Amino acid sequence: MERNVVSLGKIAHKLKREGKLREAEEIYMQILRIDSDSVYALVGLGDLKRRARRFEDAVEYYKRCFEIERNNWYAFAGLGDAYRGLGDLDKALKAWYHCLKLRPADHKTMTRVADGLRKKGKLDDSKEFYFMALAKYPLDPYALMGLGQIAMEQGDDDEALDFFERVAEISDNPVIGLTSAANILRKRKAFKKAIALYEKVLRFAPGNSHAWHGKADCLRGLKQFPSAIEAWEIALEHGMDKRAGLTRIGDSYISLNELDLAEASYKKAISMGYYKYAYLGISKVHARKDHPHKALEVLSMLRHRESGDQRISEESGKLLERYPEIAQSTPLYPN
C-alpha cells in the first residue's frame, strides 16, 4: 500500500506542476481512499484549492493535516498563504511565524512575514525580516522588491531605485524590477533612461501594457507625440484601461493641435463611462476652438459632480480669466 501511495503522490505532484489541477485532485482523492490519514494528500489538496482561489476550502484541508500531524510545516506554510488570500493578514502571519519556529532558516517564509508586515504598515519590522531573508539568501528577489517598495513609501527614491535595479540584475524574470526602476526614472523626468528600461521589459514581455504606457508617457515628456500615441495604442491593445489610454491619446493630439482627433478620442473614452480627465480634455478642445461657452458648460458640470476638485477649479479660473464676459451668460452649477 505504501509503495502505491508514494507512486500516486509522485503522479499527483507532477500533474499539479503541469497545471492539471483537476487530474491532480482526482489522484490525491484516490490516495485518501487508500490512506485517509495521508497528510501528503491533504496538503496537496489544500494547495490545489489555494491555486484555484478557493481559500476557505484550502484552510479546511490544511487544518485536517494538523489533526494527524500537529507541526506539518507544509500545511502551516499553505495555511498562511490561504489566509493571505482571504485578506486575514493576522492569521497569515501567525501561521508563518509558526513555520519559522519549525524552520528558522527558511528565507522564503521570512519574506512572506515581511510582506505581511509591510501591508499592515509596520515598515521597520518588515525591513528587519527582509534583511533577515537576504542574510540567508542574498539573491532573494522578493526581499529586494519589498525593500524597494518600502523605500518608495518612505520617499527615498534613490534607495528604491538601487533595490529595483538589483532585482532586475538577478531575477530570471526581471520585468517587475525593471518596470519599478523605470517608473522611478520616469517620475524624475529621466525619460530616455526610463524608455531604455521599458524597452528591456518589452523584450521579455512584448504585451506588457504597463511598459507600453510608461514608454508612451516618457515619449510625451520628450514631446515625441506621434510616437507616444502609437505606444498608447499598443498599450490599449494589451489591456490598458481604455478610458485612461484614450484620454492620454487625446491629450497628445491637443499638443499636436489636432483638435478634431483629440475630441474624437475624448468622446470615445466618455462613451465607455464617466471619466473626469476626458471631460477636462473636451473642455480644452472647446476653448482651443474658441467656443468658451461650451468649455465652461463642461467645467460647470464637472464642478457639480466633483465639488472641491482643485484641478477643475483651476481650469475654470483660467477660462474665466481669459473670457471674463462668459461668466454672466453661461449658467454655472454651484461649486
CATH-wise, what's the superfamily of the domain at 1-88? Tetratricopeptide repeat domain
Number of distinct helices = 20
The succession of helices and strands, N to C, reads: HHHHHHHHHHHHHHHHHHHH
Rounded mean pLDDT score: 93
Radius of gyration, in Å, reads 27 Å
User: CATH fold name of the domain at 1-88, please?
Assistant: Serine Threonine Protein Phosphatase 5, Tetratricopeptide repeat
Largest sheet: none
In the CATH classification, which architecture of the domain at 1-88 applies?
Answer: Alpha Horseshoe
Q: Based on DSSP secondary structure assignment, what is the total number of beta strands?
A: 0
Q: How helix-rich are the residues, as a percent range?
A: over 70%
CATH class wording of the domain at 1-88? Mainly Alpha
Distance between the termini: 77 Å
Shape assignment? elongated
Structural class: mainly alpha
Query: Strand portion, in percent?
Result: under 5%
List segments where confidence is low: pLDDT < 50 over at least 5 consecutive residues. Answer: none
Describe the protein in words.
This protein has a domain of 88 residues: Tetratricopeptide repeat domain (Serine Threonine Protein Phosphatase 5, Tetratricopeptide repeat), CATH 1.25.40.10. Helix 1 packs antiparallel against helix 2 and helix 18 packs antiparallel against helix 19. It is mostly helical and 335 residues long. It starts with a helix and ends in a 6-residue tail after the last helix. The chain contains 20 helices and no strands.
SSE order and pairing:
Layout lengths: L1 H16 L3 H14 L4 H13 L3 H14 L4 H13 L3 H14 L4 H13 L3 H14 L4 H13 L3 H14 L4 H13 L3 H14 L4 H13 L3 H13 L4 H14 L3 H12 L5 H13 L3 H14 L4 H13 L3 H4 L6
Helix pairs in contact: 1-2, 1-3, 2-3, 3-4, 3-5, 4-5, 5-6, 6-7, 7-8, 7-9, 8-9, 9-10, 10-11, 11-12, 11-13, 12-13, 13-14, 14-15, 15-16, 15-17, 16-17, 17-18, 18-19
